[in-house]
Design a protein that fits this description.
The complex is a heterodimer. Chain A is α+β, with helices and mostly antiparallel strands. In chain A, 28% of the residues lie in helices and 25% in strands. Chain A folds into 2 domains: 78 residues, Arc Repressor Mutant, subunit A (Orthogonal Bundle), CATH 1.10.10; 96 residues, Jelly Rolls. In chain A, the strands form 3 sheets. A 6-stranded antiparallel sheet of chain A has the order 1-2-3-11-5-8, covered by helices on one side. In chain A, α1 crosses α3. Chain A is elongated. By secondary structure, chain B is an all-alpha fold. Classes of the chains: A alpha+beta, B mainly alpha. At the A-B interface, α1, α2, α3 and α4 of A face α3, α4, α5, α6 and α7 of B. The structure holds zinc ion (ZN). The site of zinc ion has 6 residues of chain A, from α3.
Chain lengths: 214, 222
C-alpha cells in the first residue's frame, strides 16, 4: 500500500505526544504502520520529543528507586517475551496488525442506511471508532459535521469532492467540510471512521440517517 | 561501584568511526574510569541497551538508569502528575527498558529516542488507562535490508541525536514553545492555539517549520 493522503504534521504531533483521544489515535497509528512517509515524520517527532526531554534538569529520585527497580527485575518471571494478540476476525481482507487489538472476534454490523453498515470497535472519550462498510457504488448523502471526522480506507475506495481515496489513505475533515463520498463501483468500501460528534446530514436521506442516529 | 566489567565478555565490539570529535564510550580502554566519567553525551547508550538484550548486563542497566531515570521523572512531573506517579512511571519505564531491550533497534534510533518514547507512552497509558496504539512493526515491509554494520549505524544514530538536540536549541523560541506545550503540557494543536490566543494556522505553520528543519537536519546527517 502506498497511501497518497496523509495526516498533517500537527495531527501526527498530537498523536505522538498523546494529545488525541484513543479512537483517532488508533486510526493514525494504523495509517503510520503502513506508510513510510508518516513513519519518517513520526521518527522526526520522536527524536524531537526525546531531545526536549533529554534537556530537562534531572529530578531527584526516591532514595530506594534503583534498588526497587533491580528487585522487581530480579523477581519477575524469566523470559518476559512480548506477545501480540492476533484476533481472528470476520473481515474478508487483510487488515494491518496494528488494528488487531481493537478488532472483536466477530463484528456486529448495524444498518446505518440502505448503503452503509457500521460496526463499533471503540466507544471512548466522546469519540467512537467504527468500521464503515459502504456498498459498492453507493453515495453517502451530502453532509456537514459538527465536529471532526477521521477516516482511513481499509479496503476498496471512495471518491469525495473529486479526490480518490484508496487503501491506506487518510482523511481529516473539520466542521466546515461538506462532503458526499461515493464508494467504488466494483466492490464494497471498508473504512475506519472516528467522529467526535453526531453527523449532521443535510441531504434528504441525511435527515433519515439522523433519525436513526438519534 | 560502577566498575564496568566487560573485559570478560568476548563480544566487545570494535568501533569504526570517522568523526574525530566522537569518543565512543566503549573502546579498548573500557575500564578506564576517565572514560566513564566523561561528558555523558559521549556515552554510547545504544551499546548499553544491546548489553542488556544480549547479556542481561546489570551494570549497563545501572548506567542507563542513572542517566535516564531522573530525566524521566522530571518529564512526568512537568506534565503535571504527582511525585508518586512520577516515581512509579519512572520505575515502570526502566523495567520496560530492561524487558524490551531485545526490541530496541540500534540501527534505527538512538537510545534516548527509544527510552523517552517508552516514558511518554507510559504516561499516556496511565492517563487513559488504556494502551497507546503504536504502529505494528510487521505492517511495514522494508523495501530493502540495510546492508551496513549495526555498530556503525549505532554510532551514527547516537551522534544524530546529539546534533538534533543542538538543532532544537537553535529553533526560534515561538517554535520550540509550541513543541514544549505539545510534549510537556498535553495540549493538542487546537488547544495551543486557544492557549496562546493565536490563529490555528499560525500554530500549524510553527509545527511544520520546526519539524521540517529538524527532518532536514536528520536527512543531512544520516
Ligand atoms: Zn502517511
Amino acid at each position: 500500500m502506498y497511501p497518497k493522503h496523509h495526516p498533517s504534521y500537527e495531527l501526527l504531533l498530537d498523536y505522538a505526544a498523546g494529545n488525541l483521544p484513543i479512537a483517532p489515535s488508533v486510526i493514525i497509528a494504523t495509517h503510520c504502520s503502513i506508510c513510510h512517509e508518516c513513519r519518517d515524520t513520526l521518527d522526526t517527532i520522536n527524536i524531537t520529543g526525546a531531545a526536549l526531554m533529554d534537556d530537562l534538569n534531572a529530578d531527584s529520585l526516591d532514595t530506594d528507586s534503583l534498588e526497587n527497580v533491580l528487585t522487581k527485575i530480579n523477581n519477575q518471571p524469566k523470559d518476559t517475551e512480548i506477545k501480540y494478540d492476533y484476533n481472528s476476525n470476520s473481515l474478508t481482507f487483510d487488515v494491518p496488525k496494528t488494528l488487531n487489538n481493537y478488532l472483536p472476534k466477530s463484528l456486529k454490523w448495524k444498518n446505518l442506511s440502505s448503503g452503509v453498515k457500521t460496526a463499533e470497535l471503540i466507544a471512548d472519550d466522546g469519540f467512537n471508532l467504527d468500521i464503515y462498510r459502504i456498498k459498492s457504488g453507493y453515495k453517502i448523502p451530502k453532509h456537514t459535521h459538527t465536529g471532526f471526522e477521521y477516516t482511513m480506507v481499509l479496503d476498496g475506495g471512495f471518491t469525495d469532492n473529486q479526490i480518490y481515496f484508496g487503501p491506506g489513505d487518510f482523511s481529516f475533515l473539520d466542521d466546515t467540510s461538506n462532503h458526499s463520498p461515493k464508494a467504488d463501483l466494483d466492490r464494497d468500501c471498508y473504512c475506519l471512521v472516528s467522529i467526535d460528534s453526531q453527523i449532521k446530514l443535510t441531504g434528504p436521506i441525511g435527515r433519515f440517517i439522523n433519525l436513526i442516529n438519534n | 561501584m560502577f566498575f564496568y566489567s566487560l573485559q570478560d565478555n568476548s563480544k566487545v565490539p570494535v568501533y569504526k568511526c570517522t568523526d574525530n570529535n566522537y569518543v565512543p564510550y566503549m573502546n579498548n580502554n573500557v575500564l578506564n574510569n576517565n572514560v566513564l566519567n566523561n561528558n555523558v553525551s559521549q556515552i554510547n547508550y545504544s551499546f548499553l541497551i544491546d548489553e542488556i538484550a544480549n547479556n542481561q548486563n546489570k551494570q549497563a542497566f545501572i548506567k542507563l538508569f542513572n542517566h535516564f531515570a531522573p530525566r524521566i521523572k522530571s518529564f512526568v512531573l512537568k506534565t503535571g502528575l504527582s511525585l508518586n506517579e512520577a516515581e512509579d512511571l519512572t520505575q515502570e519505564t526502566m523495567i520496560t527498558v530492561w524487558n524490551k531491550a531485545k526490541l530496541f533497534k540500534s540501527d534505527k534510533s538512538a537510545a534516548s529516542t527509544w527510552i523517552f518514547a517508552i516514558a511518554r507512552n507510559k504516561r499516556i497509558d496511565h492517563l487513559r488507562r488504556q494502551k497507546h496504539p503504536l504502529p505494528h512493526q510487521d505492517d511495514l515491509l522494508l523495501a530493502s535490508e540495510i546492508d551496513l554494520k549495526t555498530h556503525e549505524l549505532e554510532l551514527e544514530k547516537e551522534q544524530t541525536f546529539n546534533n538534533i538536540k543542538l538543532e532544537i536549541t537553535k529553533l526560534p523560541k515561538e517554535q520550540s514553545d509550541v513543541l514544549k506545550k505539545s510534549f510537556f503540557e498535553g495540549m493538542s494543536h487546537i488547544e495551543i492555539s486557544k492557549d496562546l490566543d493565536i490563529p490555528l494556522g499560525t500554530v500549524k505553520s510553527r509545527i511544520r517549520l520546526a519539524l521540517t528543519s529538524i527532518r532536514k537536519k536528520m536527512k543531512g546527517l544520516n
